[in-house]
Design a protein that fits this description.
six-stranded mixed β-sheet; alpha/beta; 256 residues; 11 helices; 2-enoyl-CoA Hydratase, Chain A, domain 1; Lyase 2-enoyl-coa Hydratase, Chain  A, domain 2; globular
Length: 256
C-alpha cells in the first residue's frame, strides 16, 4: 500500500498521507514520497493549489518508532544525509510556486507540526486538531522546524512552544499566528476545499510571484526589500495574466 495518495480535480491537487494505522507518522519512505508528490504537483500545469491532508484521525503524529530507532543507530554522516532529506521535503513545500493548504483534523505533533508550519495556509478542526513540538521531551531538538517557526511567529512565541513542548489547541495556534483558519470539525473538509477553490480562481503566475516574495523579503533590509519589490512589481506588469486581467477589468468598466 502506498504511503501517500494523490488526486487532481478542477485545478486542486490533493496529497493524502496514507498511514492511518501509524497516525501518518513520518518515516524515510513517507518523507521521500511527500517530497516527490509536492514536486509532481509543482510540475503539473493543471494544478493551481495543493491540499495536504492525512488519512484517519491524525494529521501527522511526528516520527514513527521505527524511524526513531533507525536514526539512533545511524552514523553522524548518515544522520546528516537523513536530516537533509527532511529539510529538503519541507523546503519543497516552501518553494512550491503554488499555494499549499494543510487540512488538520487531529494531531499535528513534532515533525507533523513542522509540516503544517511550512504550509501557506492551515485550516484546522476546532476540537479535533492539536499542535505541539514535543522533541525536547525525548532529548531531541526541533532543529529544522525551528528556523521556519521563528520566521512565522517570532522569537518569543517560538521559544515558548519549542522549550515547553506543550500541546495547544487550534484556537490558540491561530492566536499565536501558527495557523490561519479554525473551523468546526464537521465542516473541515468543506471549508478547506472552499478555500482551495477560491485560490484556484486566482492567477497562477501572480500567486507564484507573491509566494516567492513572501519568502525572499524576510531576510532583507527595508531598502533592499523595497528595491526588490519595485522590480517584481514591474515584472508582474509584463505577465500575460496581468495584461489579460487589466484588459478584462477595463472592459467591465465600460459604460458604468
Amino acid at each position: 500500500m502506498s504511503v501517500i495518495t494523490t488526486t487532481v480535480t478542477d485545478g486542486i491537487g490533493t496529497i493524502t498521507m496514507n498511514r492511518p494505522e501509524k497516525r501518518n507518522a513520518l518515516s524515510t519512505e513517507l518523507i521521500a514520497a511527500l517530497h516527490g508528490a509536492v514536486d509532481a504537483m509543482r510540475d503539473d500545469t493543471t494544478v493551481k493549489v495543493v491540499v495536504l491532508r492525512g488519512d484517519g484521525p491524525a494529521f501527522c503524529a511526528g516520527a514513527d518508532l521505527a524511524y526513531l530507532q533507525r536514526i539512533s543507530e545511524l552514523s553522524p554522516l548518515e544522520n546528516v544525509d537523513d536530516s537533509t532529506s527532511l529539510k529538503n521535503m519541507f523546503q519543497a513545500i516552501v518553494d512550491c510556486p503554488k499555494p499549499v493548504i494543510a487540512m488538520v483534523q487531529g494531531a499535528a505533533i513534532a515533525g507533523g507540526c513542522g509540516l503544517a508550519t511550512v504550509c501557506d495556509i492551515v485550516v484546522a478542526a476546532r476540537t479535533g486538531a492539536v499542535f505541539g513540538y514535543s522533541e525536547v521531551k525525548i532529548g531531541f531538538i526541533p532543529a529544522i522546524v525551528l528556523v521556519y517557526l521563528v520566521r512565522k511567529i517570532g522569537d518569543t512565541r517560538a521559544r515558548r512552544l519549542l522549550l515547553t513542548a506543550e500541546n495547544i489547541s487550534a484556537e490558540e495556534a491561530q492566536t499565536l499566528g501558527m495557523i490561519s483558519h479554525v473551523v468546526d470539525d464537521d465542516v473541515l473538509e468543506l471549508e478547506t476545499m472552499q478555500i482551495a477553490r477560491r485560490l484556484a480562481k486566482n492567477s497562477a503566475s501572480a500567486m507564484a510571484m507573491t509566494k516567492s516574495m513572501l519568502t525572499a523579503v524576510q531576510g532583507m533590509s527595508l531598502d533592499a526589500g523595497l528595491h526588490y519589490a519595485t522590480v517584481m512589481n514591474a515584472m508582474a506588469r509584463q505577465t500575460e495574466d496581468c495584461q489579460k486581467g487589466i484588459a478584462a477589468f477595463l472592459n467591465s468598466q465600460k459604460g458604468t
